[in-house]
Amino acid sequence: MTVWDDLQGQPAVVAQLRQASMGEGLTHAWLFTGPPGSGRSNAAKAFAAALNCDQDDVTKRGCGTCPACLTILGETHADVSFVRTEKVTITIEEARDLVAKAGNRPSSARWRIIVVEDADRMAERTTNVLLKAIEEPTPRTIWMLCAPSPADVLVTIRSRCRAVALRLPPAADVAALLVKRDGVDPALAERAARAAQSHVGIARRLARDAEARERRLETVRFPLGLRGITAAVMMADKLVKIATEEATSSNEERDAAERASLLATLGAPETGTLPPAMRSQVKQLEDDQKRRAKRSVTDSLDRTLTDLLSFYRDVLIIQLGNAVELVNVELRSELEEFAQKSGPEVTLARMDAINNARKRITTTNVAPLLAVESMAASLIQ
Question: Which of 202, 134, 139 has its CA nearest to residue 168?
């Protein structure tokens, strides 16, 4: 096992990063780009582990078993920082903290590494705070920024970074990873990878959670019964509820684990009232979790609409002659019947309506239900 094993379907990226970890073409700033689910942050994490691996032989770095690799992969290494936000944007204060941290020499590793997983969630003035630190880094510091595309990062930043472009891996590679890493049944792994459209994290959740699979199937089948404005309003309400349930189910376990870990770290009593100093820290954690919950609902709704979009994508594929494999193979007969009721132009317009709703929900303050209701009305048969 090595740190590269989870980067399924990315042979060119693995080759590029392996070479850099051995000192060939290594630079102080990197920009990892690729669509959601392509493994941007996983690639950055694997690269960070390889750079600071304990192996003396450069050809063996990234072993995945030494203390440095294990602590970096577990995000507990003192010299490697992972930055992600549960809010809409990364603030200027957080960026300034990163710059201060980047100015310190590594305490024990070869490199101090800063991995910013949400570089696209920085406003222009926030990104400018990082510019000088990336432009003139300290000798033993490496920056790794992750974003969906180069266009999501200021040109002044991306011009100073070496690009690493990832793609969505083939569904077969994602299925193979689920079987090897998580012990998933091969048939189930194949269905989950296809339904997730090669998004590794979503595929793993679908493979492990039968309720998540049912919620997704319910979402994809919605257009089959969409006749009239009443049905559209009901569909919109249900879609928002599905997204909320999906986000809640994934957050509850993590929230409880975080609270238990914090209380154990503070040495809190098992029963009775918490001391004031402890209550303030628990309150801060709860506030952070509430902010995360709000964003996770938005992200979950975006994913739900992506699942809905897969229905119309399959309809379009059928209308254009079945040139590529369907995502929702199990619904082929229903999809074929639906495809006969309109032409490709209508299907493309419906796909545009869904994508417009996704954009409004993720980039504006519109009420999600209103955005989805407007979208649903435009999908009526």
Answer: 202
Q: Please write the tens of the pLDDT for every residue from 266-286.
A: 777 766 777 777 777 777 777
The strand ranges marked E within the chain are 29-33, 80-83, 112-116, 141-147, 162-165
Using left for φ > 0, alpha for ψ between -120 and 50, and beta otherwise, residue 112 falls in beta
Q: Indicate the pTM of the whole model.
A: 0.72
Any idea which residue has 């339904």 for tokens?
195
**Per-position b or e across 70-103, b if 16+ CB within 10 A of its CB:** bbbbeeebebbbbbebeeeebeeebbeebeeebe
CA pair distance 71, 158, nearest whole angstrom: 29
Tell me whether strands 162-165 and 29-33 are parallel, antiparallel or unpaired: parallel
Beta carbons of 148 and 34 less than 8 angstroms apart: yes
The position carrying tokens 């959740």 is 205
Q: What is the DSSP letter of 117?
A: T
pLDDT digits (tens, 9 = 90+) for 310-324: 999 999 999 999 878
* Segment 152-201, tens digit of pLDDT: 888 888 888 999 999 888 888 889 889 988 889 999 999 999 999 888 88
Strand order in the sheet with 29-33: 80-83, 112-116, 141-147, 29-33, 162-165
C-alpha dihedral sign at 39, 41, 44, 49 = negative
Name the β-bridge partners of 29.
Answer: 143
Q: Angle at which helices 229-266 and 276-319 pack, to 10 degrees?
A: 140
Enumerate the β-bridge partners of residue 213. none
d(CA 113, CA 144): 7
In the block, residue with structure tokens 């979208």: 375
Instruction: Please give the span between the terminal C-alpha atoms of the chain, in angstroms, as a whole number.
Output: 51
Phi-psi region of 293 (alpha: psi -120 to 50; beta: other; left: phi over 0): alpha
Nearest to 84 by CA among 117, 53, 38: 117
Q: Residue 267, Cβ neighbours under 10 Å: how many?
A: 7
The DSSP call for residue 26 is -
All residues at 6 or more sequence positions from 286 whose CB lies less than 8 Å from its CB, including other chains: 259
